[in-house]
Write a structure and sequence with these properties.
Number of strands: 9
Radius of gyration: 18 Å
Largest sheet: 6 strands, antiparallel
CATH architecture of the domain at 43-139: 3-layer Sandwich
Helix content: under 10%
Strand content: 25-35%
Distance between the termini: 49 Å
CATH topology of the domain at 43-139: Rieske Iron-sulfur Protein
Order of helices and strands: HEEEEEEEEE
Strand order of the largest sheet: 1-9-8-4-3-2
CATH superfamily of the domain at 43-139: Rieske [2Fe-2S] iron-sulphur domain
Length: about 140
């Protein structure tokens, strides 16, 4: 094998690192739920448009944040701060296309769920979303 081919193969092998996202061990046991929402109802109107957000506090551990990614794809994230043991300040609040932890002001992306703050170790917990027309099922 020629040296150039060997270098290319070696660099491809080394670039396949394990990029698994770690999750806060305190958020591994979230209560199971399924919830259906109808985007035709006025309380969910903001989710019908790109960039629209909504928080439903009755779901998940501390609520669920929703984000309309592109007009058709909805993302759902646990509202509990992923870098804290659940406590009185460990919820997050939506600020534009980010969420902010009430404990230490950690920021997270509503698009990717990844932390935007250097000190934050874990990303947000994602919930399953299945959309059929204007009916949306959220589950874990």
């Amino acid at each position: 094998m020629k040296p150039l081919c060997l270098v290319v193969l070696l660099s491809l092998f080394l670039s396949c690192a394990n990029d698994d996202v770690q999750q806060n061990p305190y958020l591994n046991q979230l209560p199971p739920f399924e919830f259906e929402l109808n985007l035709n109802l006025p309380q969910y109107d903001n989710l019908r448009f790109t960039g629209g957000t909504l928080t439903l506090s009755q779901l998940g551990l501390r609520g669920v944040h929703f984000y309309n990614l592109n007009g058709t794809q909805l993302l759902a994230w646990e509202a509990s701060c992923p870098n804290h043991r659940p406590n009185t300040c460990s919820s997050t609040e939506i600020q534009g296309i980010e969420t902010k932890c009430n404990c230490e002001d950690y920021l997270y992306s509503l698009v990717t769920g990844q932390p935007l703050s250097e000190d934050a170790q874990y990303g947000m917990v994602n919930y399953g979303v299945r959309r059929t027309g204007n009916l949306v099922l959220i589950y874990n």
